[in-house]
Specification:
Layout: H1 2-53, H2 62-71, E1 80-85, E2 90-93, H3 107-113, E3 118-120, E4 124-125, E5 132-142, E6 145-155, H4 157-166, E7 173-178, E8 183-187, H5 200-205, E9 211-217, E10 224-231, E11 237-244, H6 246-266, H7 271-321, H8 327-349, E12 356-357, H9 358-373, E13 378-383, E14 387-388, H10 390-410, E15 419-426, E16 432-438, H11 452-463, E17 467-472, E18 476-482
Parallel strand pairs: 13-15
Antiparallel strand pairs: 1-2, 1-6, 3-5, 4-5, 5-6, 7-8, 7-11, 9-10, 10-11, 12-14, 15-16, 16-18, 17-18
Helix pairs in contact: 1-2, 1-6, 1-7, 6-7, 7-8, 8-9, 8-10, 9-10, 10-11
């Protein structure tokens, strides 16, 4: 009996370690995705900064500075940008705590100065506020000569936000290291810069495989963890996630104790029955944890997809602003992208499979439109507590964008203060009635029926399985009966 129980406990322990390893590699993949995104947005922003500077790397004019600010849209709030001349003088920065210091001895300046086009720093201690940061820099050239560097730095606290989203056991960590062994960032934070070239990750594991797991003692805090790692494609970086075993093993030994207390008093006569019960509980627990891991992974990837889509839409908005297009056309395209970006922002912050709440969703679409057009109209929202299915959110957002934009463009052309009412109320047969009404000067709908906005309205209402009408009654009243769930 005791041999059987011992074998079961051993197997249970091995399975516990296997589940921890699966969590570590899944977390490392998530760190890899986010690290790739950080590098991508940094490269794009640095490239757009270089383009905005044109021939002269001195952002003196208001137009050039405005183009630089547009190039930085989409970066995390904590990111800071700098433009440094070849002489080491900072010409431009978004850092509110900036002080004029010489950074020519920093690798992110000296390496591009020696000819490297793009450079990723190791972990740095900021000389301005003592915080831990890492930076990306790009060499600036004019006429083939070195003209300075453009730099974007990220606070290591950015990795803390990622660690929180992974929901790992307490004591777990996430890190980014360079392929030369230098630590780029870690959370919880290390004491300072570290050279990890002699750690087993670089001496044993990376030479054999770009992705994997292993058990080791952390060189940072000397704690035992299961480590998952993954090389980030097209970069010199390695994503690392270390899962703490303490809480997992505590649960394991509590379970073992409960089983032993049940089996020992029973005796040899109930050995087979006890073993059967333990096996059944083990399999059920294993299946439940597998389902929970799968759900956590799916939720993480769902949110990550919407986060990446939102960031890509914002990047497209920034590119559109840089195009030589008529102001009205550029604004219309920008607002359509903003409406779609708002949809993905809502989905990123909500449960992966829960419907969206209509009141907050409609407000997030309509209120920025009124602000963007600087309209004097008073906005009134009358939104019932209706659930909006994920598949219906984007067409509803684009429909609201087009109808409200028409009202803001045509209803109050003289600058008079009017009223714009947006209503969404349930009707029979599971449908909802969307109503947008203004008390402006009105317009003839047939005059704009062939424009892009009207084509979009027709297409979006069709996607919502509805029909619409528009009347001029002391202004314009738009009505659409649509299906939202």
């Amino acid at each position: 009996m005791f041999f059987v129980v011992g074998a079961l406990i051993f197997q249970w322990h091995k399975d516990t370690e296997s589940r921890a390893a699966a969590s570590a590699i899944a977390a490392a993949q998530a760190v890899k995705i986010n690290t790739g995104w950080i590098v991508e947005v940094a490269e794009q922003a640095l490239h757009r900064m270089d383009l905005a500077l044109e021939a002269n790397p001195t952002p003196g004019s208001g137009e050039t500075q405005s183009q630089i600010e547009e190039a930085l849209e989409g970066l995390p709030v904590s990111a800071k940008a700098y433009i440094v001349s070849a002489a080491g003088r900072t010409l431009y920065t978004t850092d509110p705590g900036f002080a004029d210091i010489d950074i020519r001895d920093r690798d992110y300046f000296s390496v591009p100065a020696s000819g490297e086009p793009f450079y990723t720093s190791s972990l740095l201690i900021s000389r301005l506020d003592g915080s831990q940061i890492f930076a990306f820099s790009q060499r600036l050239e004019r006429g083939g000569d070195f003209a300075g560097v453009a730099v974007i730095s990220f606070d290591v606290d950015l990795l803390g936000e990622l660690l929180d989203s992974l929901a790992l056991d307490p004591g777990s960590t996430v890190s980014i290291v360079r392929e030369d062994g230098m630590l780029v960032g870690r959370f919880p934070k290390a004491e300072g810069p570290m050279d990890l070239r002699e750690h087993v990750l670089f001496t044993d594991h990376l030479p054999r495989a770009e992705t994997g797991t292993y058990a080791a003692i952390s060189p940072v805090d000397q704690k035992a963890r299961i480590i998952g790692y993954a090389a980030v494609p097209d970069t010199s970086l390695i994503a690392v996630a270390s899962v703490s075993m303490s809480e997992t093993l505590d649960r394991f030994w509590r379970g073992v104790g409960a089983v032993l207390l049940l089996i020992i008093p029973v005796g040899l006569g109930l050995t087979l029955a006890a073993v059967g019960i333990v096996r059944l509980l083990f399999k059920d627990n294993q299946r439940r944890e597998e389902l929970e891991r799968a759900l956590e992974t799916n939720t993480l990837m769902f949110r990550e997809i919407h986060h990446r889509v939102k960031n890509n839409l914002q990047s497209m908005q920034s590119l559109i602003r840089m195009q030589d297009l008529p102001r009205d056309v550029k604004r219309d395209i920008h607002l359509r992208f903003a409406a779609m970006s708002s949809v993905h922002e809502h989905m990123y912050h909500h449960d992966a499979y829960a419907a969206l709440e209509a009141s907050a969703f409609v407000a997030s679409i309509v209120e920025p439109l009124v602000e963007a057009y600087g309209s004097p109209a008073i906005l009134e929202l009358d939104i019932a507590p209706i659930a909006i299915d994920h598949d219906r959110a984007t067409p509803l957002a684009l429909l609201l964008n087009e109808v409200v934009t028409n009202a803001l463009k045509h209803a109050f052309v003289g600058g008079e203060q009017g009223k714009l009412i947006v209503s969404l109320q349930p009707v029979t047969d599971g449908k909802a009635l969307l109503k947008v009404a203004d008390n402006g000067v009105g317009y003839r709908p047939e005059e704009i029926v062939q424009r892009m906005g009207s084509k979009l309205i027709n297409a979006m209402v069709m996607q919502l399985d509805g029909q619409w009408s528009q009347d001029v009654q002391n202004g314009v009243v738009f009505k659409a009966e649509v299906t939202l769930n």
